[in-house]
Design brief:
Blueprint (H helix, E strand, L loop, with lengths): L11 H12 L2 H11 L6 E5 L7 H8 L4 E6 L2 H10 L4 E4 L10 E7 L8 H11 E12 L9 E2 L3 H16 L6 H12 L2 E8 L2 E2 L1 H21 L5 H15 L6 E3 L3 E7 L1
Parallel strand pairs: 1-2, 1-4, 2-3, 4-5
Antiparallel strand pairs: 5-10, 6-9, 7-10, 8-9
Helix pairs in contact: 1-8, 2-3, 5-7, 6-8, 6-9, 8-9
Bound molecules: S-adenosylmethionine.
S-adenosylmethionine binds next to helix 1.
């Protein structure tokens, strides 16, 4: 199944990037589930799970009496997920029209910003839930001022984030879910239960590599849509690579992430 609107692709190096990102987000998933009342025995679905996503964290939340399903359109992502999370049920499908048995939690991270019509996607997640079921979405702000950052600052991080968002938009994605989640949730029929914002801090070598690899994953889209030249991509890559070797780095962060919790 091809996803014409998805700019990041499914290479090994891109999947490695998603694995390091996901392994630093587990506490967020577990904490959000606890606050939303999702626990042992629940039936949960990770929409757009990628190679790991929240599958491991959700398996810990629901325990052996619960069930975890991961949905993704990418066969390569699902092949990796099968190795990493053998007890999880995996479904190759488009999150916009997949039909599953009713669940207690519909989860997404870094998926809604890649959809052409996030409201359509959210409506399908709403359909997948039992009455009283909960949606948890962890999605980024698409503004340059909320780009991944570090101390000391590395300007390439902001520019790469602009290119991540620009490439998604050039492929037809509507990237504003993180900031406009309340409007989307309300229109899809959810009651907004809570919202909060956070950034994830990574070890410097991981934190500078996450945007650097994203830049490489986007290369074909950036060139096709004239969003950046080869020379500009090489310069940004070199700047992020050099940052990894710096002394005295205090912290390196993700973009601003917004958590939306909605009840059906
Ligand atoms: C940026 S990755 C995030 C993966 C995972 N949620 C995580 O946080 O690590 C987005 C994933 O969503 C999948 N995806 C995007 N649009 C999709 C769609 N319409 N249907 C199914 N999968 C989709 C991609 O294949 C990719 O694996």
């Amino acid at each position: 199944m091809t996803l014409p609107h998805y700019a990041l692709g499914a290479t090994d190096v891109e999947h490695q990037r998603l694995l390091s990102l996901a392994s630093h987000e587990e506490d967020r998933v577990i904490d959000a589930c606890r606050r939303a009342g999702v626990g042992e025995g629940a039936r949960v679905v990770d929409f757009g799970c990628g190679p790991l996503g929240a599958l491991a964290a959700l398996s810990r939340v629901v325990g052996p009496s619960g069930s975890v399903t991961g949905v993704d359109a990418s066969p390569a992502a699902l092949a990796k997920a099968r190795l990493l999370s053998p007890s999880v049920q995996l479904v190759q499908a488009d999150v916009n029209d997949v039909a599953l048995p009713p669940c207690d939690l519909a989860y997404s991270r870094l998926m809604l910003l890649h959809q052409q019509d996030p409201l359509r996607t959210l409506r399908n997640m709403h359909r997948a839930l039992k009455p009283g079921g909960v949606l948890i979405a962890h999605e980024p702000s698409d503004l340059p001022m909320h780009a991944p950052a570090s101390e000391p600052p590395v300007p390439a991080m902001t520019r790469i984030w602009e290119l991540v968002i620009g490439a998604a938009q050039a492929r037809g994605a509507t990237t504003d879910f993180g900031l406009r989640g309340r409007s989307y949730l309300t229109a899809a029929g959810f009651t907004v239960e809570s919202t909060r914002a956070y950034v994830v801090h990574y070890p410097p070598e991981v934190g500078y590599d996450i945007p650097r690899v994203a830049l490489q994953s986007l290369r074909p889209t950036l060139l096709e849509h004239s969003l950046a030249t080869e020379a500009a991509i090489a310069a940004l890559d070199a700047e992020a690579e050099a940052a990894k070797g710096r002394e005295g780095v205090q912290w390196v962060s993700s973009p601003l992430m917004v958590e939306w919790v909605g009840r059906k």
